[in-house]
Amino acid sequence: MTLYPGQVMKGQNPMPLTPPPNSNGDSNDSWDENKGFCESVGPTKKPQTEPVRRARKVEGGIFFPKPENAVTIAVSSRVLFRTEKEQKVFEEKGVEEYLNYQVQHENEPLAPGPAFPFVKALEAVNSQLRELYPESEELFDIVLVTYNHAHVGVRLINTINHHNLFIERFCMTGGSSPIGYLKAWHTNLYLSADAEKVQEALAEGIAAATMFMPEKQVEVSETQLRVAFDGDAVLFSDESERIFKAHGLDKFFEHERENEHTLLEHGPLKGFLEALGKLQKKFYAKGHRLNCPIRTYLVTARSAASSGIRALKTLRAWGLETDEALFLAGAPKGPMLEKIRPHIYFDDQMFHIEGAAERGTIAAHVPYGIAQMYSHRKSTNSAK
Amino acid sequence: MAVSCHGMFDLDSCNVQPDSCALPKGAAFAFIKAVQTVNQRLLGLSEKNKTLLFEVVLLGKDCEEHIKLNIFDSAKHYGLEIDKFYFCSSDNLIGTLQANHINLFLSPDKDDVYSVLKAGVPAALLYQQAEQQAINRLKVLFSGDLIGLSADSMVCLKDRGFTDVHIQNFKAAKECLREFVVRIGEMKRMFGHEGSPLHTSLMTVWGSRDVCASALKTLRGWGLDVDEAFCLAGATCGPILALLQPHIVWDNGLHNLKGVAPLLSS
C-alpha cells in the first residue's frame, strides 16, 4: 500500500545531463524515441531582461530531479497560498466569475498558506543536500497539483516568482481528478485543503493529508525541517485504535501486551517517514548527525512503559527511527507540539488537529482508519 | 476548417479481399468521432455556426485501387462524415494539401507531419490512444516550449545548437499554430466551461515555469484559454500523456527533429 521512494519503476538512467537516451519502458508513448531529447536539453534559458533568480545551477546546468528518484511532494494551490477570498467568489458566484476574478487579479501575488513554511523548509534542506551531493537526484521535488483551471496558472506562477519558491513542476487539471497525475509523478506525499481528494489519494496508496490554517502564526525554524507524526493510523495501521474504540482502554492495553512481539501493520505515512529517513542518512554519512537539517518526531498517546514498546519495536524492525519519540500516555498533545514547532504534524484525529491548530501548530489531518467514523468535539466539517 | 486525415484506418494490418467487411479502425477513428460531436454541438447551438464547423477530408497516400474502394465502403459502414476523399502519391502530399486549402493536416506519422510543417502547412500529430476513449470530447494538446518563446528569444536557441534553418522552421510552425488556435478559440467560446466538447491542454516539457506562463499568455492573446496546463521541467512526458490521451498533439515539429539530439548533448 505504501509507496517506497526511490523505487525505480522504469529502468531509467538517473543522470540527467548525460546524452540521450536509454530506452524507456513506455511503449504507449508516441514521443518515445524523443524522450532522450527531452531529458538532455534541460530548460530554456530566459532572456536576460528577467529579474535574477536564485541560482539553481549544478555544474553549469540547471537540472530538475527525475520524479522517481526524488522525494516528490505534491501541494495544492489552496494549501500553499491563502485563497479564502477567491474561494468565496467561486462558491458565491460560480466558475466563470471565479476565473474572471483570478485573471483580473493576476498580478497580485497570493499570501502564504499553511504549507508555505513546510515548502520553504524543504528547499532549505535541498540546498544543503546539493552542497553535499551535487550530482545526486535524491532531493525534494515540489510539484504544484491543483484542480484549478489553467487561467489561474498565470497568477500562481506570478505568486511563485514573487515568493521566490523553487517550484518548477505543476499540473493544473482544470477540474479533472489529479490522482492519476499524482501517480505519474511518483508522489510521496500529497497535501490538499480538500478532504475528499485526500481520501481518494489515500485509497490509491499515496500518503496524503488535509492541511488547515493554524489560528495563530508561530515561528518555525528556517534551517531545520521538523516533521511530527502521530503513531496509530498514521505511521501504523489503525488495528489497535479499533480495539480501543470498540472495547475500551483496558482491552487495548491487554491486546498490546499480548501482541508485544508482533509488529504493527504499516499506516499511510510510513513511506514518507522512510523517505525522510533515507535523506537523513545522507546527512549522517557526511558527519551531520547532530545538526541534521531534518528532524522527525513521534508524538503518540501511547504510554512508554507499556503500549509504546510495540510501536518502537515495529519501527526498529522496519529499519526506521524517529529522532524524538514522545509518549504522552493520554496527555494532551498541544503543549508538546507547541514546544517542538514542527513544520507539519500528521494526525488521524480531528480532535488533536483542532487542539494543535489552536496553539499555532501547523497540523495536517490524515483521514484514515476507524477514527473517521466517530464524531469530534467541534464540527466535523473539514476545511474546504 | 478543413482537416485532412491520414491514418483513419489501419491499412497495414488487414488482409484485404474485395468486398470484405470494413477495415479495422486506425488511430484517427476516435478523433473523427470526437470532431463529429463538436460539429453537432456547434450546430445545435446555432445555425450560424456553420462557418465554424470542422470539415474532414480523408487523404490516402499511395493507395491501390481496391484499397480506395475499401476506404469508401468502410467510411460509409462506420457512419463517418467525411466530406471529401483525396488520393495522392507521397511525393505530391504537400502539393495536394496546399492546392485544396487544407487548414490542418493530421497524421500519426511524425515524418509526414514534420515535412508538411516545414512547407508552411499546419500539421499536427495524431496521438495513438491506448484504448478508444470516450468520444464526447475532442482533446487537443499544445506543446508549449516554443509557444512560450517570443521570436526574439528564439535566437537564444542557437546556443543550444539549433541552426538558423531550424529556427526559421520553428517560426513558421508557430504561425501555423496561431491560425489554428484562433479558430479553436472561437469554437471554444461557444461552449461554457462545463461540459464543453472541446478540451485543450498545454504542456511544456523542458521550459521553466516562466516559459509556461508566457505560453499561457500567448495562447490567451490568440484567443484561447486552455483547460489544463502542465509544466514538466524535464520530467518525462510519457506517463502524463498516457493519462491525458489527447487526440491531437501540436508540437511545432520540435520533437520530431532527428539528428538534433546529438547536437544537444553538452
From TrEMBL, chain A:
One of its GO terms (molecular function) is magnesium ion binding. GO terms for cellular component: cytosol. Residues 1-54 are annotated as: Disordered. InterPro entries: 5-nucleotidase. GO terms for biological process: adenosine metabolic process; nucleotide metabolic process. It comes from the Eukaryota. PANTHER family: 5'-NUCLEOTIDASE, CYTOSOLIC IAA, CYTOSOLIC 5'-NUCLEOTIDASE 1 FAMILY MEMBER. This is 5'-nucleotidase, cytosolic IAa. It comes from Electrophorus electricus. The gene is nt5c1aa.
